[in-house]
Predict the 3D structure of the following.
Amino acid sequence: MIDVQHVCKSFRNFRAVWDLSFQIGKGDIFGFVGPNGAGKTTTMRMMATLLDPDYGDLIIDGVSVLDEPEYIRTIIGYMPDYIGVYEGVEIREYLEFFAAAYRIPVEKRKSLVDEIMELTDLTTVATKDVAVLSKGMRQRLCLAKTLVHDPKVLILDEPAAGLDPRARIELRLLLKELQKLGKTIIISSHILTELSDMCNSVGIIERGIMLAAGNIQDILNQRTGGPTRQQKLLLRVLGSPDQAVAILRSLPDIGGVEIDRGVIVFNFLQPIESNPGLLGELLSRGVPVVTIAPATQNLEDIFLDVTKGIIA
Ligand SMILES: Nc1ncnc2c1ncn2[C@@H]1O[C@H](COP(=O)(O)OP(=O)(O)OP(=O)(O)O)[C@@H](O)[C@H]1O
Ligand SMILES: [Mg+2]
């Protein structure tokens, strides 16, 4: 659905985005992750035709943003990371104004705005002045605004920034709803855990370069060298871990043994089928095992590893 091809963008002689290429499939929720200044907003503005790349192209639904920017604007909805609001305008009026701007016929506007307010949970505050909305309500209004012309592709720049935990969960559910309606969604954030349960694929960008992109599980597998070849395990023992550490280090297929806040973390270079054997070995040597469990590897881990250059 979206094909970013060798895109470069510099500001004066500063390279904000460098030879960026990645794809987003139809119906995907793609998480765009990276630290401050990584180039996320710059890339999203190029997708939204607000900024031209210096080199390369971005193809959305088979059409180049450079060749047909006006058509692209009809099929995308862009939510910027900062929105201006007008004073003395109610939520409903605000949305009806945008519906008019998108040339939605006057007789359809009211029902459309009702539908969108329902979807974004704004119905109960329809008559509130947009200038006095809380941050979360403003984010929702901004998302509502991007839905007015029923775009196929949603480009959302940090839609979860400043939302409370409940509002974040609601946003996640809303994005899933929109995905069910067949929309392709790209969403940026630096809060990685926030994306891991919202997205089915991610791209990790740093200093304008894509370090890893694709399915979250594939990136994890790439990182560990395959789903079964190596495991990262956590071992808890009764009392001091020192003796258990010494025993672990003496065993074959064990590496990287460390103690982290009283828990032993180590790599086991065997598939999961070998875990009962390992547990038996530890017990037979008198290690007072309390639990042995896989270390969960989430986006946070991937991000830290990738930005250390482990995948790149
Ligand atoms: N119009 C501009 N003029 C000059 N430099 C710019 C301009 N827009 C962006 N930059 C620079 O390009 C780099 C990438 O910025 P960008 O806004 O894309 O980062 P980001 O990943 O969105 O960061 P954040 O997480 O802080 O929003 C930054 O160093 C920024 O200062
Ligand atoms: Mg940004």
